[in-house]
Inverse folding.
């Protein structure tokens, strides 16, 4: 493969403005990325980035009884999904396993790291 000229590179990297042209790109996108990969990447971004942004935007909780007392969230961690098998007994579970169990919601441990300040 030869080097692309600047004009050729500009054409290939130019934004696609026409909606009909964008639809033509969809099959190629799905071949390369796949629909499932896009969902997984989106979920991972939500868990790793967006949740932290949400916590950061609402990081301070002030006491109604004493406005000088507050707690500030510093970070949040989301664990792996698990299912409760008995009282206080859990086991890890994969999303594939949930396909065979009706009326099941996945949950996971999430820890918020905070500091209370008076």
């Amino acid at each position: 493969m030869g080097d692309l000229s600047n004009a050729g590179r500009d054409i290939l990297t130019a934004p696609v403005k026409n909606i009909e042209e964008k639809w033509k790109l969809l099959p190629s996108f799905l071949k390369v990325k796949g629909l499932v990969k896009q969902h997984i990447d989106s979920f991972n971004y939500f868990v790793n980035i967006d949740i932290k942004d949400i916590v950061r935007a609402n990081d301070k909780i002030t006491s109604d009884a004493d406005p000088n007392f507050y707690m500030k969230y510093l970070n949040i961690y989301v664990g792996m999904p698990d299912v409760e098998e008995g009282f206080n007994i859990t086991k890890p579970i994969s999303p594939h396993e949930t396909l065979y169990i009706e009326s099941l919601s996945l949950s996971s441990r999430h820890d918020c790291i905070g500091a209370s300040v008076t």
